[in-house]
Write a structure and sequence with these properties.
single chain, 189 residues, alpha+beta, ADP-ribosylation fold, four-stranded antiparallel beta sheet, three-stranded antiparallel beta sheet, 10 strands, 25% strand, globular
Length: 189
Amino acid sequence: MNHSVYHGSKSNGLKMINPSPSTHQVPWVYATNDPVMSAVFIGQIGGDFTLKIGRDENGMPYISERFKDALGEAYSGGGSLYELDGDDFLEGKTSWLEEVVSEKPVKVLKETAIKDMRGYLLGLAESGELKISIYPEKYMCPPDDADIVEKAVLWTQQFGPSTLENLNKYHPGLVAKVKSKLEKEIKNV
């Protein structure tokens, strides 16, 4: 075994992580090389519409709330962080550089069960392993939420109108901007 990779899941007690299709339409096991970065994806309800996740210019993982109490909504409940053998994982298969994937089922080496995801993440922030930005602070986010609008336009084109329904749950004030941008793109085709 050369190195470990990490996979976050709402499910506890897994012995194997099996490939499953996601937005990439290919069945893969998704993981990262960094346990902190994998932890932030456990149960992240609402995806990019609730939180912005990434690394800042110093390489620090961060979570930035996109609206009041998004952290509590996105990370209610628990889950597990799984350590996996990284030998069968490939880099560069997705657009996100942090992500590695395996086409094969992967045996779990170690499980860290987490009862309270929000509390776990706040503990990582307290220990200096993660930066958490609480709304209305917009750490690493544009002040006008233009990134959310762009993603909503792209995802609506790729996945259909359910994206607008999801956006409306979290950012009803941005739906008109997305619809306007979609109409402009249709006219320019």
